[in-house]
Amino acid sequence: MIRVLIADDEPLMRAGIKAILGTAEDIELVAEAGDGREAVRIALERRVDVAVLDIRMPRLDGLAAARELKAVAPAVRVVMLTTFGEDDNIVRALADGAAGFLLKDSAPEELLRAVRAVHSGEAYLSPMVTSRVVGMVAAVGQPRRQEAMRQVAGLTEREVEVLSLLGLGMSNADVGQRLHMSEATVKTYVSRLLAKLGLTNRVQAALLARDAGLAG
Fold it and tell me: Could you list the residue ranges that cross the membrane (predicted)?
């Protein structure tokens, strides 16, 4: 059972998210919060697997809450929810440790997919967010490209192969099938890559792969 916390300052929005989560037999809503500060407190008190955070909240916004959760409860996976699609929010959310990013007008099934994906260690970006990220990467400047290439220079050949496929958005199962490895072995490689590169999640790894020109 995936234990989920939702944080949004709009009661109606929380009710909608609660209704969507309630349709899934493998997901349990364990707590609700009206702001980021309350969300962090509850996440520390309850055994929460996934926190669904609105970016725009009083007292402590979702970005700051994600940053605090990464520091004090790194096992909690974060899905960001927002009505805004600004590129700076996407970049900041990913940098602050979010493993998923959805717009509030996404289809209900997307929320369920996102919760399940981040809980299993995958990353999830809504299609609209993905297109924005790809656009940002396509416009990457030469200094950023050089820095990304410097970061990956110390990886082994196999690690580079895995990182390249992460950059294409592949799941662990897809990577394993492509490279003829078990899913467990892929997970080990992904964990090792994140540690060696000083990254928090697969989304950051995928962006680095694209920055370095490894993902086509």
Answer: none
pTM over 0.85: no
Task: Please answer whether residues 118 and 48 qualify as being in contact, where contact means their C-beta atoms are separated by less than 8 angstroms.
Answer: no
**CA-CA distances (angstroms) from residue 5 to 41, 194, 205?**
11, 25, 26
Domain containing residue 144: CATH number:
1.10.10.10
Q: How far apart are CA 13 and CA 181, in angstroms?
A: 42
Shared domain for 63 and 104, answered yes or no, is yes
Q: Which is more confident, 84 or 188? A: 188
The Cα–Cα gap between 15 and 6 comes to 10
Is-contact 205 148, C-beta < 8 A?
A: no
Domain termination residue (choose one: 134, 155, 174): 134
Dist. CA 78–CA 95, nearest whole Å: 12
**What do you get for the CA distance between the two ends of the chain, in Å?**
37
